């Protein structure tokens, strides 16, 4: 790669592990926005620098999401707000800038950047399915009063995350059913020993429900068929796949579990970001 230095501006522990991994590969790393992070012995952090130095790097990596308030860069470990307009002015438009999803930042605010989304990279999406599935199971183990072993689980959606999650649950000897609209997805799930359904309107006795479908799958009518003591873990991007108002009326517990890789496995998530950036740079060449 024709890159000698990476500037990493803002973000959470994922970006810190990404910075460390890039530095271990021999590249220069310029880090900004982590002055309030106190690293433990298990994580030697790349030293902080000033914003201008980080923005002057050959390539810049921004967080996922870019912003949570539509104005400032997502930087939970920064003592000061990092205004996105200031960042874009310093970076300019002649170098690659990598980021995740916009969050609440309007797309036009990124118009002046040569922006590449690592969250759109297929490698990134596939690799992230593992920490997402592990994080979902961790939540289920904390919230559910029984064991995963023997529990009746529904996994809605059989895409990248749904496949990994269903396999992990089955490996823990849960009673797993997969909901999928495509007959090919149901056939694939059946082939590895999963139960499948194409319709959620029938009464069911699921104890744990995991949704991976970014569409309104669980309407009020569907939720009325679900046991009130069931736990729903929605992994889909906001607004998710569950009618929250209906779930509240029906006393069904819904947990929106977003950004699980960064919470459950930030080290792995950071390395996944690094690998996605490397692959995108290689593709550019």
- Helix count? 10
Task: Compute the separation of the termini in Å.
Answer: 8 Å
Oligomer: single chain
Mean pLDDT: 90
Question: Rg from C-alpha positions?
Answer: 21 Å
3D shape:
elongated
* Major beta sheet summary: 6 strands, parallel
Number of strands: 11
Alpha-beta classification: alpha/beta
Which strand order does the major sheet show? 8-7-6-9-10-11
As residue ranges, the low-confidence spans are none
Sequence of secondary-structure elements: EHEHEHEEHEHEHEEHEHEHH
Strand-helix topology:
Blueprint: E1 5-9, H1 13-24, E2 28-32, H2 51-55, E3 59-61, H3 84-91, E4 96-99, E5 114-117, H4 122-143, E6 152-156, H5 160-171, E7 175-179, H6 183-191, E8 195-197, E9 208-211, H7 220-223, E10 231-234, H8 244-249, E11 253-256, H9 260-264, H10 266-284
Parallel strand pairs: 1-2, 1-3, 3-4, 4-5, 6-7, 6-9, 7-8, 9-10, 10-11
Helix pairs in contact: 1-10, 4-5, 4-10
How do you describe this structure in short?
This protein is an alpha/beta fold.
Tell me what the structure shows.
By secondary structure, the chain is an alpha/beta fold. Helix content is 36%, strand content 16%. It has helices at residues 13-24, 51-55, 84-91, 122-143, 160-171, 183-191, 220-223, 244-249, 260-264, 266-284; strands at residues 5-9, 28-32, 59-61, 96-99, 114-117, 152-156, 175-179, 195-197, 208-211, 231-234, 253-256. Strands 8-7-6-9-10-11 form a six-stranded parallel beta sheet. A five-stranded parallel beta sheet has the order 2-1-3-4-5. α5 links the parallel β6 and β7 (175-179). It is elongated.
